[in-house]
Amino acid sequence: MLPQWIIEKKRDGAELSSAEIRDFIAGYTKGDIPDYQMSALAMAIYFTGMTPRETADLTLAMMESGKVIDPDVIPGRKVDKHSTGGTLDKLESIKNYRVGLSESEFFQTLEKCGCSMIGQTAEIAPADKKLYALRDVTATVPSIPLIVSSIMSKKMAEGIDALVLDVKCGSGAFMQNIENARALAKGLVDTGKAMGKKVTALITDMNQPLGRTVGNALEVQESLDILNGKGPADARGL
């Protein structure tokens, strides 16, 4: 099927098949489908949405665009977390902390510490990296199916067994009302379960700041203080 036929089908509100989604994302990743056609499909998805099955298929196609990590060499259940509010920018403010680990460094850290936090690599879900840059300049970022597939394609590529999601809601969050936050949380959980993973989501309030500091390094230091029983009493109470 020609790319324009798939765009037309989604534009008119029809449900795309698994093969149509897979072939379109594969073609876009390889460069056979140009940015302008991917932009058109993203806009069609923005306006007409996707079914849970379509969203899961889009997530799978984006995950399979790159390498899928196999962490079975490490014993035990592999569990990850994701926050829609961001984490890595704060971690990078810690002296000598690197989020750009190689796969071997990632495994070594897991074996030694039992925990490792890294950023997206060039090998993980390259379709997501290309598509997100495109969504950013075509006003299609706030689409729940596209948000879900972006987040979950990277998480599923890690080879995890389970995932805990922190979905932010409020004036300081991307999802500013509870209805949209719940819709996003449900989309994330449903997609993870459709891909055979145990997934749960918490909706947390971002209507007011916590703590007394502003800035990544200062906020990290304040978090350490709180973990050590110091810092603001209200934040310690949480």
Protein traits:
mainly alpha; 238 residues; 11 helices; 51% helix; 3-stranded parallel sheet
Distance between the termini: 54 Å
The biggest sheet amounts to: 3 strands, parallel
Shape call: globular
Percent strand equals 5-15%
Give average pLDDT, whole number: 92
- Assembly state here? single chain
- Share of helical residues: 40-55%
- Can you list the strand order of the major beta sheet? 1-2-3
Radius of gyration: 19 Å
The total count of helices amounts to 11
What is the chain-wise order of helices and strands?
A: HHHHEHHHHEHEHH
Instruction: Tell me the number of strands.
Output: 3
Structural class: mainly alpha
Poorly predicted parts: none
Structure commentary:
The chain is mainly alpha-helical. It has eleven helices and three strands. A three-stranded parallel β-sheet has the order 1-2-3, covered by helices on one side. The longest helix has 17 residues, at 178-194. The N and C termini lie far apart (54 Å).
Give a summary of the structure in a few sentences:
By secondary structure, this protein is mostly helical.
Write the layout of secondary structure elements.
Elements: H1 3-11, H2 18-30, H3 35-48, H4 52-63, E1 79-83, H5 88-91, H6 103-113, H7 126-137, H8 144-156, E2 162-169, H9 178-194, E3 198-205, H10 216-227, H11 233-237
Parallel strand pairs: 1-2, 2-3
Helix pairs in contact: 1-3, 2-4, 4-8, 4-9, 8-9
